[in-house]
Task: structure prediction
Amino acid sequence: MAGSDGVIRGPAGDGRVSAVAHEDIADVAVAVLSGEGHDGAVYDVTGPEALTPAEAAEELSRFAGRTLRYVPETREESCASRAGYGAEDWEVTGWVTSYEAVAVGEMSAVSDVVSHLTDRPARSFGEYLTEHPSSYVICCPVAEQAGSSIRTYAGRVAALFRVVDDTCP
Result:
């Protein structure tokens, strides 16, 4: 999430992430659950490209109508910068460790699973943003006034997914 200063911060360095759209995951699940020959198969479902956080910020900038940029942080800086969101420790830890996984390459692999199982290409980040303008509304200048409410809602949604870890004190 970008701050009001237009900066996306985190300890991802120059790592890459091949994010996959929810719809692509759902379409793969339908193909696997309704098709033959998938018993025991393991699929690495990814997006069609692996972007650095800086590249993702550039793409978001095109859609949000303002310049966003990525600034790398250390783990300590990342935990501290997220403390102001009022999130639970487990949630902050999840955010920080996700960025760290990007930094070490754990999310950089790109597969053709979506196209192989659905007979259509996976959605790119730009295509996802085109289809889901509400996904980047927090990055838009008019959203600044509503930012607190959006973060509160996002925190409630995230509370559904409990992660126990003590990475951030």
